[in-house]
Amino acid sequence: MTSATQRAREADPADPGEPGGAAPGGAVPLTEPRDGVPQPVTDPAELARVVAAFAAGSGPVAVDAERASGYRYGQRAYLVQLRRAGAGTSLVDPVALPDLTGLGAALADVEWVLHAASQDLPCLSEVGMRPTRLFDTELAGRLLGYPRVSLGAMVEQVLGLVLEKGHSAADWSTRPLPEPWLRYAALDVEVLVELRDALEEQLRAAGKLDWALEEFAAVAAAPPPAPRVDPWRRTSGLHRVRRRRQLAAVRALWEKRDELARARDVSPGRVLPDAAIVEAALAQPGTVEELVALRPFGGRATRRAAATWFAALSSASELAEEDLPPHSLPTDGPPPARSWASRDEAAAARLARVRAAVAELAERHALPAENLLPPDALRRLAWAPPPDAGAAEVAAVLRGHGARAWQVGLVAEAVAGALPEPPPAPDPRA
Fold this sequence. Notes:
It comes from Vallicoccus soli. GO terms for molecular function: 3'-5' exonuclease activity; nucleic acid binding; nucleotide binding. Residues 243-323 form the HRDC domain. Residues 1-41, 321-344 are annotated as: Disordered. The chain is α/β, with parallel strands linked by helices. It contains 21 helices and seven strands. The protein is flat.
């Protein structure tokens, strides 16, 4: 089968109207799927044919999902895209077909190729699709040290093709989906397998393929994210809220907003912005009129629901002291690194030394420091190092904090050497 890369490059570069015409910088636009734009699969019988076709296909399967972040409540999938040799490209509508367990089972033993897999796996799992093996092209790009690792950037840098990305933030809950959106969705999986193959060769040449395979296995085996404790604490601007009574107001407004957003199936930020929640919690208005006088509550929809928001604020103001939320949740981890200097100068200095050691290793191996070692593992080690901080002891601590074998093998000795305070420099006057 002719690859998309070959097909694009064989197109007439002199004709800008042809798919594959030359783009600035020598990259070639990829504007049409090689098999045309498929229509979404919405019928069970049609889905059964897709399942059979993909089960009979060969090689890895490219998988992507489109959500409606910023428009709808939650992170469910509104379109699932797949492409596999021998099966072509299919776009499946999980609104019409919410149970894709059969499709997932047909691909259970197949390597899935995804870009930024951790973003799509939760919503794919919700519809019954979960890989046992995967190749993450974004993660591969990070391990190879690419400066830009979005799908469009990786396709351009590795394959010399330009993907049109104009619909990435669209409302994918729209029905029917416009034809340009379907074309965009099909192109997202058009060259994923080709990108995977090229990146695998680069990883092998760089001596990083085993690292990548270990990372991919960890992503595939990771359990679904657990529900957050006190999710309202992620309200943007919460750092401005200092008093527990004000925190209770944030909680009350956040929970009421979440209730309304879930019932309406809209993004919570469209019901009430975070800025309005924080402003109301800080101001503690005593009447509905005082609430709507606050600038973030000036919109028509917000004013219309002012009585609802004021009722939530009133419920927080009436709480007994013992029912107010604590300033922070208890944790088994170290405090925020920004507070270390005031709480434990030795730990702050230790963290600076081990960070520098990891940064130097990351630069030497041409990959981001956060991919060389999870920042949380590094902070936990620096805050509470083992009594005998040799390389073996450091390695055991890092493994206990979730570091992978390849990461431990690269950093344990350097980090162990950076943990002790260096001896004072000799006095040149002595």
